Amino acid sequence: MAFTLPDLPYAYDALAAAGMSQETLEFHHDLHHKAYVDNGNKLLEGSGHEAKSLEDIVVATYQSGALVQSGLFNNASQHWNHIQFWEMMGPSGQAMPSELESALTENFGSVDAFKQEFSAAGAGQFGSGWCWLVKDKDGSLKVTKTENGVNPLCFGQTALLGCDVWEHSYYIDFRNKRPAYLSNFLDNLVNWENVASRMA
Fold this sequence. Notes:
This protein has helices at about 20-45, 55-60, 70-90, 100-110, 110-125, 170-175, 180-190, 190-195, and strands at about 130-135, 140-145, 160-165. It is mostly helical. The longest helix has 23 residues, at about 20-45. The radius of gyration is 16 Å and the shape is globular.
């Protein structure tokens, strides 16, 4: 089905106090995300995937082991990634639900240990990509990182939390300080209730 750009689930200035400026959201959502939607729709025409859901298009067009993915995959996957990213953030002050805190402690030793591993994955992703907290096929929680637009759908995993580490996500607010962006993301931007809801 055709891709459509969703509205942000909050105002453009809603995350400013938490460290993501209105300018960043305007550039990131209205220009970058919109480009994935527009380019993806052009590539979708005549592809044979027009009737599929976005998730099915991502899985069907992913080429395991390939150094370069197709244009349709790149745009569809980045469209899906960004839909999740907007929903995974929210205005600051949201407490972590106890069931998520318990799951992180069980799988990583502590919430702080999870945050350290997540931040290290994001900081260590060479070039553009994403870092993720995923629920794996066996039910365990893991931290992963992916290049460019590749996401957990490609590996049969459930994305619980994802952070965009492409430069356009943080350069306006943090310049080249990706670790500071990641730290701020975890401490001030994550909508932990949304993350917890994805575990079910």
